[in-house]
Amino acid sequence: MASQAGRRGEPLVAVYCASKAAVISLTQSAGLNLY
Hints:
single chain; mainly alpha; 60% helix
């Protein structure tokens, strides 16, 4: 559910990019816990 903005920074939307990066990290961590 995250966009590419979570994987690379974009000017003027740092908070948006940070929230998308958090979604990516959370889903990766949850996947590791289930594996």
